[in-house]
Design goal:
Length: 404
């Protein structure tokens, strides 16, 4: 038993420490326990001493050095400040989840740092046994208690994910036979590649509709996991140079998932048989299929197009339906010029979006109102802001015409 634990037990201070035993019981391939004494670190959990980023350099970010380890080794990290493009790093994409009593503690620069259970699981699974890993992780790399920094860093996220050498996707622990789904994705992707080599016209002739029920259920469950329904992952996935998808101990290359889903979507357009109709509808309804399918060039690359496509995706704060998509816009400067920040109210965000996308003002459909409702605005607020925007636009036209 470590000296620290003996000391705690000897002094009978167990009641002042919170003993957490984390067992990854959902992952059938893992058998381990991680014991943490939350008050055994050098500083209170709420006061991690972040060093400020270089305010003179907009490319300054923090990366997490995830130190090598395996098994029951404690998760240990170091934070390093770098400039975008100065060194190779990866970026983590995962589901935050809600804070709970199950939150766990890792070590960063010798201090205790509380993380949510899903992030803890991700770090435990992606760390390497023989070498450190440089990873950008939003919950750690951004000082979440600093509203100004948070706004500035969110505006950089498009570039951060675009410049990462690889985006590490953490879908979650193994569940509902996800191993079956991943193994079959790899098999289907290999089959598609082989068919392309033999005859490109046969590349989509995949027999995925004839799968046994157990495999079909595993595929549907995996493609519709909560991770795929998060709004923030839209830009994290779409801006990546390379994807590596982790689910428990299984790893799926991103290009394999993309190839299989693309083939499924293509095949469904030409197979409308009774046997396939229900299966096609089931597949198309899955969140991952919608997300990967949106990588097709047909999707508008303006802010309004992205919002309209993914407005129903999940996010903790209503204004994130805009903030989480800024990095995807055609106008690369849109997310970096201070037009949006977390000090803005939902009404101010709505007003700013209308200024940028004034074609919405003439929208005869319900989308204009759906977007306002998604931000938590009342119909009265929406109508009032729309009238202000119309008046401002008309005045601008008049001023422009007078100059001409």
């Amino acid at each position: 038993m470590p000296r620290l634990c003996r000391s705690v037990l000897k002094s009978r201070r167990l009641r002042s420490c919170r003993l957490l035993v984390h067992t990854s019981c959902l992952d059938l391939n893992v058998s381990w326990k991680q014991i943490k004494l939350i008050k055994s670190f050098q500083a209170p959990l709420s006061s991690f001493p972040y060093k400020p980023l270089d305010s003179q350099r907009v490319t300054s970010i923090r990366v997490v050095i995830l130190h090598k380890g395996s098994g029951n080794d404690a998760i240990s990290c170091t934070i390093e400040h770098i400039q975008l493009g100065s060194r190779k790093y990866e970026a983590l994409s995962y589901e935050w989840g809600q804070p709970s009593d199950d939150d766990l503690v890792i070590q960063i620069d010798g201090f205790g740092f509380k993380v949510r259970r899903n992030l803890f699981d991700a770090l435990w699974h992606i760390r390497l046994p023989e070498e450190d890993r440089y990873v950008w992780i939003d919950a750690i790399s951004i000082n979440q208690d600093d509203l100004v920094e948070r706004s500035e860093e969110v505006q950089k996220m498009g570039r951060i994910y675009r410049k990462a050498s690889c985006v590490l996707v953490w879908v979650g622990l193994d569940a509902q036979r996800s191993d079956l789904a991943i193994d079959y994705f790899i098999q289907l992707a290999a089959d598609a590649r082989k068919r392309e080599e033999d005859d490109p016209s046969r590349a989509t002739s995949l027999q995925w509709k004839l799968l046994p029920v157990a495999k079909r259920q595993a595929i549907i469950a995996w493609l519709d996991r909560r991770y795929w329904k998060r709004l923030w992952i839209v830009q994290e996935i779409h801006l990546s140079q390379q994807l590596k998808i982790h689910c428990g101990k299984c790893i799926l290359p991103g290009q394999d998932l993309y190839k299989v889903i693309s083939a499924m979507l293509f095949d469904s357009m030409y197979d409308d048989s009774d046997a396939s109709t229900a299966w096609n509808a089931e597949i198309k309804a899955c969140a991952a299929v919608k997300l990967i399918g949106a990588r097709m060039p047909k999707l508008p690359r303006c802010l309004s197009g992205w919002i309209q496509e993914f407005m129903a995706s999940q996010c903790s704060e209503p204004i994130d339906v805009v903030f989480g998509l800024l990095g995807l816009c055609c106008d690369e400067d849109l997310s970096d010029n201070g037009k949006f920040n977390y000090a803005m109210t939902p009404a101010e965000v709505f007003r700013k979006v209308l200024e940028l996308e004034n074609t919405w003002l003439e929208d005869p459909g319900t989308f204009f109102y759906d977007f306002g409702n998604r931000l938590g605005l009342t119909r009265t607020d929406i109508v009032s802001i729309r009238e202000e925007a119309l008046s401002r636009r008309d005045n601008n036209y008049k001023e422009y015409a007078s100059v001409l």
